Amino acid sequence: MRHHGGVSSLDPADPANVLVRKIAERIARTMREFDTALIEELFSDGLLNVMAAPEFAQSDKLRRVFSALENQAYLGELLRTVARSGRVQVFIGGENDSPEMHEVSLVLAPYGQPDRAVGVVGVLGPTRMSYPHAIGTVRFVSALMNELVDHLYA
Question: pTM, whole model, 2 decimals?
Answer without folding.
Answer: 0.64
